[in-house]
Amino acid sequence: MNDINDINVTAKDIYSQAPLREPERQLYFIERCREFVLKIRPEGKPLMLVNTFGCQMNAHDSEKLKGMLFEMGYGEAKGESEADFIIYNTCCVRENAENKVYGNLGQLKHLKREKKRLKIALCGCMMQQETVIATIKEKYSYVDLVFGTHNLYKLPELLFAAFISDEPVYEIKTKHGEIVENLPSVRNFKYKASVNIMYGCDNFCSYCIVPYVRGRERSRKPEDILNEIKGLVKDGVKEVCLLGQNVNSYGKGLSERVSFGKLLRMVNDVEGLERIRFMTSHPKDLSDELIFAMRDCEKVCKHIHLPFQAGNDEILRKMNRHYTKEQYIALTERLKANVPGVAITTDIMVGFPGEYDVDDTVDIIKRVRFSGAFTFIYSKRVGTPAAKMDNMPEEGLVKENFNRVLEVLNPIIAEINAEKRGKTYKVLAEGISGHDKSLLTGRLEDNTLIHFKGNTDSIGNTVSVKVTDSKTFYLLGEQEEI
Ligand code: 5AD
Ligand code: SF4
Asked: Whose CA is closest to 409, among 468, 469, 466, 348?
């Protein structure tokens, strides 16, 4: 059998011939990696597995990692045991996300022992923390390649280095570099796609590690965003989700300042595109300009994800959120008044230092009536200002408060869904439902999930669906004859 270590590489020549500009340099290393990859498994295509932890931003980054790996000649493995290359794209926003990575990684040790040619890589947010790197070097020394969020685009060059080296390759950058455009990518879904509009976050909410691991805010140029979307539409995409940690501050630092509201109007003009979503919005930056763009642009879905985190003004101040409870509620009222039928979803955190009750959080939930929410228990992140705050509420109390939030929140979500029974909505049919193979699945404009009886020929199209039943987190329905 061919061992990749036996391949005679003139690495020096390869590096000296590498273009200095991006993306040309990575495209060059994709080709150089391919020469290795094609020899890994004499019996056929070698297989890779990208395991993603965390948010939509990471899920989208993984699409880019996969795109580059496919170009190198890898196929996709169904499970870790058959893979020749495993990469974990990690998340560090809460401790349990990190623990999952360590748990999974521990299990890879046996696999690596059994299969010498297996390469293991770690990347993403967790890798931007020094303590994590020290732990990996000490306890998981069998990992071959480690890189962070600022050099994700360099996977080809770094994997090449891992192929030619017997030592593990670590490249962690503390500062972000350029935004690299036009590298290969794939899509997890055929008819909808995520599009980064900006990277990083400048808000420094006191509990959040994101600004430290994803760096300062930088926006992509509108023309790059529009070109990408036009390309996606040509490829059959009907719905895009514009991604950023805080999309409302889009445009800062661009030579020609374009606001997020303006960008939405530009995307709305892309022919053939049917739906536009975006996330996440910070309440402090949500301008009337954006509200009016949501009102005016027919393709922009009438849904906004607007995390409020906590209801109490003192807690909000300690979180560095820059709004009060009443300001948040007033903002949602302005949204509802201008964008009829708008659905508002949110993130809620329970158990922040000093938060002994959730009365104000419950008050916001009752007054705003969210149609969905991600709920979290506060997790201390070393390096953030909140990690140094005392007055941590006891675990038992936090659990009690968390349950109280769910007890108020879930019935409201169920009620909002129940109000849809008997009505007909436009649904983008995304595919066969994983819930029940005889049904199709899709989303209403307001982002509610629906499983419905429908014609498989409709997949990829926007169809009219009558809601026949509702559950707390999804609807059931039937496609209407046209
Ligand atoms: N603990 C718990 N939840 C957190 N989030 C961010 N940081 C933390 C933390 N330290 C939540 C916030 C944010 C979402 C993406 O994750 O609610 O909106
Ligand atoms: Fe974290 Fe706040 Fe930035 Fe969101 S806006 S990523 S919660 S610092």
From this structure: 348
Torsion, Cα of 204, 209, 215, 218 (10° steps): -60
Rounded to two decimals, what is the model's pTM?
A: 0.93
Per-residue pLDDT of the chain (482 residues; tens, 9 = 90+): 344 444 555 788 889 999 999 999 999 999 999 999 999 988 889 999 999 999 999 999 999 999 999 999 999 999 999 999 999 999 999 999 999 999 999 999 999 999 989 999 999 999 999 999 999 999 999 999 999 999 999 999 999 999 999 899 999 988 887 889 889 899 989 999 999 999 999 999 999 999 999 999 999 999 999 999 999 999 999 999 999 999 999 998 899 889 999 999 999 999 999 999 999 999 998 999 999 999 999 999 999 999 999 999 999 999 999 999 999 999 999 999 999 999 999 999 999 999 999 999 999 999 999 999 999 999 999 999 999 999 999 999 999 999 999 999 999 999 999 999 999 999 999 999 988 899 999 999 999 999 999 999 999 999 999 999 999 999 999 999 75
Q: Which residues contact 166 (CB under 8 A, 6 or more apart)?
A: 5
Q: How far is the CA of 225 from the centre of ligand 2 (A)?
A: 23
Going from the Cα of 93 to the center of ligand 1, the distance in angstroms, rounded, reads: 6
Q: How far is the CA of 210 from the centre of ligand 2 (A)?
A: 6
> Ligand 2: which atom is nearest the Cα of residue 211?
8
Ligand closest to 94 (CA) is 1
Closest CA to 247 of 194, 209, 312: 194
Q: Identify the residue whose C-alpha is closest to ligand 1 atom 16.
A: 93
CB 151 within 8 A of CB 124: no
For atom 13 of ligand 1, the residue with the nearest CA is: 347
User: Quick one: which atom of ligand 1 is closest to the CA of 384?
Assistant: 10
Residue ranges around ligand 1 (CB below 6 Å) = 93-94, 207-208, 307, 309, 347, 349, 376, 378-379, 381
Q: Quick count: other Cβ atoms within 10 Å of Cβ 406?
A: 14
Distance 219 CA to ligand 1 centre (A): 22
- Report helix, strand or coil for 380: coil
